[in-house]
Amino acid sequence: MADFDPTLTEAAVRDLARPQSYDRGENYYDEDAVVELVRRGETIRAAVEGSQYEPYQVRIELDETGVVDTACSCPYDHGGICKHRVAVLLTYVRDPDRIDQRPPVSELVADADPEDIRDVLVDLVESRPELAEQVESRLETRESGEEGDDARNRTADINRESIRQQVQYILRPTEGRSAHAYDPYEAVETDVEKLRNVLDQVRTAVEAGDGETALDILEPLADELMDEEWLALSYDDSHAIFEFFDEVDRVLAEALLTADLSEAERADWEDRLWAWEQEMGGYTHQPPYSVALEAAQRGWDFEPVQQAMQGDIGYAGLWEGDPPWYAEDFVRARLNVLERQGRIEEYLNLAEAVDLIDDYVTMLVEEGRIDEAIEYSRRNLYSPDEALTLAKALREHDRPKAALEIAQHGLTLNDSSGQAELAEWLCDRATSMGESEIALEAAIATFDALPTLAAYQAIEELAGEEWPTVREELLESLADKDTKQRTARRHVEIFLYAERYDEAIAIADRFSDYKVVEPVVKAVWEEHPNWTINACKEQARPIIDEGQSQRYHHAVDWLEYAGKAAQASGNLDEWRAYVEDLRDEHYQKYKLRPMLEDLLEEFNGRTHTEDHD
């Protein structure tokens, strides 16, 4: 069992997610969508029931400081963690008793009989044959290791044929893929994730400075990807396989820049990469392997890069004419290798030359050159995203005041991208430091960039005696905003909380989405019964008329709210006649008819009870 219990707050969960993802994750939490929540040591695993037939699988890695890594089987990739991971973390924070605490697998097998472990492993592989290649590869890698300290300091030889077989198994249709037949999109995402597991071995080698081993794994992986089997993973609505190709390209570039290759070996890789790039050029106008090909062709000897690393050239001088589309990846591959090799001044010169401000100032902070980073940032920051990166780095290096100053400066920049995230971060940090004025300004900036109920409530808590004035300013500002379909529900929640029902009703009238109308109905049915009755009829009628049998219960729920509103306004007889007409008109819909009869009976019971009282 874990011997630590990290302190995790809802504010920390907010820091990990975009506001939209947090709100949606909280909805999943409220709907009890998180199931099978198990913690083993530092790892939490859970299933979250979502929009797909199968629940999404979530993994959370913890340490004493909190969350260190997360993963989810959903395809979300828009910044921050997804709503499913938010739901799991909120469950961890709010309902710790729901977590099934179990010992880590390492503890389970520590004292187990080797024969029992062998039997369990065999049974597992027989039930999941896709694991066989991985087991074989790991065992052969261990057997190929040499005795002694020198051998332990070297990465074991790679079994290329085993890697090739793993990739072939994933790319070629097998019984293992048939389990996902109901959802081709999810099948593609799952299989691409298996390919990433192979690529993770490459990353481990590259990060250890072992470019040769990385290339030994990459060669069969990339070679197998050139067969047309990969097209089975190019599902219409998924870009996962093309994103994976780009990942391979970037890692391959770093491996080539790390490895000590002979001229012949480099020329061989150059020929191979040129052929692969030409092959992929028929499928995308930005073919993968362009970055790796540049690394093979130019290496570290490319004169403009050498000049930039010495601080003698700017971004424009790196290229003849306009930079290619892969220019940033070309530079980042070199920055990553320079950082691993401890070549910090060359790293800084190159990052500054190409205006990678985040990388430049973060490295300055990492090197303890904090005042230099702050001064540079004040002159060169262009976006709230860059300001947030530096502010977080300063806070991690125990410069909280400087972090607040940079974050405040970031909110003054004329760029809306990332402003809401920066303002929310600043509000949380300023609050924890007792800087109430800064926290209030940041909370208002958060609301202005992305109005949510949570942001509104944060301002209410911080404003104190100023709240009545601030409240009116916020609501007036919100009323002036152009409400879109994607923001309608959030705006409705705020107006309902503020008891500004007319504004909420006006939004509900513009958008027929039940997620917008439903909270308004639940809030106003007593004070605005006639509007409620009409709104509920408009929601229920299409479900019934179109024979959406799986949604009949939703139609009845709408009619029930209409009934409550009718009863409150003294129009119950008119409502009852309406429901009876529906029942008679759709008498042949055998699933609907008894539901409507039960609804009528329920309201008859309510009427009789009131008469008796």
UniProtKB/TrEMBL annotation:
Region (Disordered) residue spans: 132-155
Keywords: Metal-binding, Zinc, Zinc-finger
UniProt xrefs under InterPro entries: Znf_SWIM
Pfam families: SWIM (PF04434)
Gene Ontology MF terms: zinc ion binding
Chain ranges of the SWIM-type domain: 56-93
Domain of life according to the entry: Archaea
Protein name: SWIM-type domain-containing protein
Protein source organism: Haloarcula amylolytica JCM 13557
